Amino acid sequence: MATLTVYPDPDPESTSVDGYSGQDAALTWAAAHDAASGNATSDGSSNMSLSIFGGAGSVSIYRLFTLFDTSALTAAATITAAELSLYVSSKTNEDNDGLDYINIYTTTPASNTAIVNADYDQIGTTAQATAIDIGSISTSAYNTFTLNATGLSNISKTAVTKFGVREGHDVENTEIGLALTNDVTVAAAETANTTSDPKLVITYSVVSPSASLSPSASASASLSPSASLSPS
After folding, report:
1. What mean pLDDT is reported for the chain?
2. Which phi and psi (to 5°) does residue 65 adopt?
3. Which of 51, 64, 89, 229 is deepest in the core (most CB within 10 A)?
């Protein structure tokens, strides 16, 4: 088995991006949750805020995008396991109601190297990993999501793998409590070095083609033709 460790590109992005898109200060939960486009988006910050706020007449939902160039695997690879790790610098968990978790989902942003407002609704609801309750999240440390079979199947072997992160109230479309905030702040690729960047570690194997058999060795010496009989 071999492992491949990949990170999103820091700015300027050449193959992959990370960032966030949010609906900030919407009048209602539905207006924030169901919006086709965000109004607070960034792909150049050193921190990404995955945030849900349930204010009266001012609801906010933020979603994260984490893309990885996994083309080094090649089509011949067989993926057996993968972990996506996020470095959390701080968290707020005011609505601890069982939906206060975060998890990994697929994304389809318009570009591999930029996140824009229109990407806000380009994130799925099918879990790609085992969720982590915000109460269990460690700060100033990596928190690791083990990808499930669905998540493994969504890793590209020849191009860019596109994942994102949502909070449980957002995924299940259940309004957070009034005036409560659930927030997880994640280090982005723009943070110096790669000691806290979003990180995808893939375990895989590549089966080498069997060596072809050498052609059978020819006889070391050709049989001499039988001596012709002398005439009687």
Report:
1. 92
2. -130, 130
3. 64
